[in-house]
Design goal:
CATH class: Alpha Beta
CATH superfamily: HUPs
Shape: globular
Strand content: under 5%
Number of helices: 2
Distance between the termini: 26 Å
Oligomer: single chain
Number of domains: 1
Structural class: mainly alpha
Helix content: 40-55%
Largest sheet: none
Amino acid sequence: FDPRHYLGTHCYGWPKTGPHRLRFLLESVKDLRDTLKKKGSTLVVRKGKPEDVVCDLITQLGSVTAVVFHEEVRGTL
C-alpha cells in the first residue's frame, strides 16, 4: 500500500482513496490472501513507497530473477 494514495491531491485536497474504496481494497486483499492460502501459496503485503518496498523485498528474498509491475494510467484533462 503506497501511502501517497491516501493523501490529498495536489490540486483540490481531496483524498485519492476515500474510506469506501479503502475498505474495498482491504477486503479484496484479504480475500486474495485467503484464496492463495487455500492453494498453498501466500501474499506479501507491505506499506510504503513501492520503489523502496520492492527493493527491500528483493534484498530480503535474495534469489529474485525477475520483477513485473504495472504503471498507473493517468488521464489527461
